[in-house]
Inverse folding.
């Protein structure tokens, strides 16, 4: 079996570091620094509430609740999905991670960096894979994804 058909349950980061939606931005940033992670599923008693990235909270006050900055419709894949399916979801939705979840709950998270390490051929449509930007990707030229910083450089001719 080629790696692109590997199950996301074998590639995802676990245990997932999930936060309560009531957690504050300061806590999220402290966890990000100490654990070197940038994407956090938000889980409450009802299940998956949303997902928040450190770039979503830029400029936020430390005491603000992370739920204010969450994507309430996170992109999810089931543990049985393949790496190819997860990459396609990331590209089509312009996100840097997918939450691995099913009816039983959140199992893990798979990021574009995880895929770049294990299945780089699937991330060929991600222009900014190796740039320093930690921002969310947006549609770019030729059906690729690009970060806002690199998009601005392309517009000004600084690429």
């Amino acid at each position: 079996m080629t790696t692109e058909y590997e199950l996301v349950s074998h590639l995802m980061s676990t245990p997932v570091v999930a936060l309560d939606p009531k957690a504050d931005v300061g806590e999220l940033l402290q966890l990000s620094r100490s654990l070197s992670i940038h994407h956090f599923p938000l889980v409450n008693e009802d299940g998956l509430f949303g997902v928040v990235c450190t770039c979503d909270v830029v400029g936020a006050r430390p005491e603000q609740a992370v739920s204010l900055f969450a994507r309430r419709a996170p992109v999810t894949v089931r543990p049985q999905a393949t790496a190819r399916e997860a990459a396609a979801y990331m590209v089509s939705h312009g996100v840097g991670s997918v939450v691995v979840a099913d009816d039983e709950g959140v199992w893990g998270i798979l990021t574009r960096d995880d895929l770049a390490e294990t299945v780089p051929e699937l991330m060929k449509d991600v222009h900014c894979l190796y740039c320093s930007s930690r921002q969310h990707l947006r549609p770019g030229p030729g059906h690729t994804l690009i970060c806002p910083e690199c998009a601005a450089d392309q517009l000004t001719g600084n690429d």
User: Anything to note?
Assistant: Residues 32 and 88 are 26 Å apart (CA to CA). Strands lie at 39-44, 47-53, 76-77, 97-102, 105-111, 138-139, 145-146.
